[in-house]
């Protein structure tokens, strides 16, 4: 029998992480798409690190930073009188960092495709930078946002290494679906593991199917 707690924790984590990534990633992606700053390549490399860095390596350093003796964790403990590691809040921080490139890169590519000439045309008609971004860039970048939301959410749902390192396996707090599947496989409970795995497989297919369908509709409109 499937337990609902890991499913709810996973959906909660993915939803909060995706929302934060959109808030942080949109201005970052816009800046990267527009700037010629000499540090652009360095920042792009930092954002893309989770794509090539083993999750256990990233999880280890995040655990060190978020632990009560770490730089971030010690300040958090001083302010809130609670640990940041092995908590849901710590899990969100790790997920945001780990899924960052899956949101920033599609948005950056989408913003770059809009192009400077279109923006210059809006400026020549009297629009300021904010109006141009809101009324011109954003509507033309909807496909990029759709991809970013899908990848950010789906990638967070499928996390394992980083989640296990910084969140542990605390039921109803940090225990997500990927860890539950691993737990069942470890004790040879394949039927339970199959139930959760099949559910994730179906969920992933449905999300991708809806995304591709909406993407085609947006492409027709544009």
Short recap of the structure:
The chain is an all-alpha fold and 222 residues long. It has 11 helices and no strands.
How are the SSEs ordered, and which strands pair?
Elements: H1 4-34, H2 40-52, H3 55-66, H4 71-80, H5 88-114, H6 116-124, H7 129-140, H8 142-157, H9 161-167, H10 177-186, H11 190-221
What brief labels describe this structure?
222 residues, mainly alpha, MetI-like fold, 11 helices
Largest sheet: none
CATH architecture: Orthogonal Bundle
| Highest-level CATH class | Mainly Alpha
The number of helices is 11
- Please count the beta strands (DSSP E, at least 2 residues each): 0
Overall tally of domains: 1
Dominant shape: globular
Question: Order of helices and strands, N to C?
Answer: HHHHHHHHHHH
Give average pLDDT, whole number: 87
Q: Which regions contain 5 or more consecutive residues with pLDDT less than 50? A: none
What's the N-to-C terminus distance?
46 Å
Radius of gyration: 20 Å
Q: Helicity range of the residues? A: over 70%
Strand content range? under 5%
Structural class: mainly alpha
Assembly state = single chain
Task: Determine the CATH topology.
Answer: MetI-like fold
Description of the molecule:
It contains 11 helices and no strands. It is an all-alpha fold and 222 residues long. The chain has a single domain, classed as Orthogonal Bundle (MetI-like fold). Helix 1 (4-34) crosses helix 8 and helix 10 packs antiparallel against helix 11 (190-221). The longest helix is centred in the C-terminal third of the chain and has 32 residues, at 190-221. The radius of gyration is 20 Å and the shape is globular. The chain starts with a helix and ends with a helix.
């Amino acid at each position: 029998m499937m337990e609902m707690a890991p499913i709810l924790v996973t959906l909660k984590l993915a939803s909060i992480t995706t929302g934060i990534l959109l808030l942080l990633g949109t201005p970052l992606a816009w800046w990267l798409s527009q700037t010629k700053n000499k540090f652009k390549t360095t920042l792009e490399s930092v954002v893309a690190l989770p794509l090539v860095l083993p999750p256990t390596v990233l999880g280890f350093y995040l655990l060190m930073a978020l632990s009560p003796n770490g730089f971030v964790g010690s300040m958090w403990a001083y302010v809130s009188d609670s640990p940041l590691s092995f908590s849901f809040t710590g899990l969100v921080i790790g997920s945001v960092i780990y899924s960052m490139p899956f949101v920033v890169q599609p948005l950056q590519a989408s913003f770059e495709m809009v192009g400077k000439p279109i923006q210059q045309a809006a400026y020549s008609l009297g629009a300021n930078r904010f109006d141009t971004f809101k009324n011109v860039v954003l509507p033309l970048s909807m496909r990029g946002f759709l991809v970013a939301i899908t990848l950010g959410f789906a990638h967070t749902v499928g996390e394992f290494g980083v989640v296990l390192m910084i969140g542990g396996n605390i039921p109803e707090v940090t225990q997500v679906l990927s860890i539950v599947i691993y737990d069942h496989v470890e004790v040879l409970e394949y039927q339970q593991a199959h139930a959760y795995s099949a559910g994730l497989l179906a969920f992933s297919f449905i999300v991708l199917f809806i995304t591709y369908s909406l993407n085609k509709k947006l492409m027709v409109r544009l």
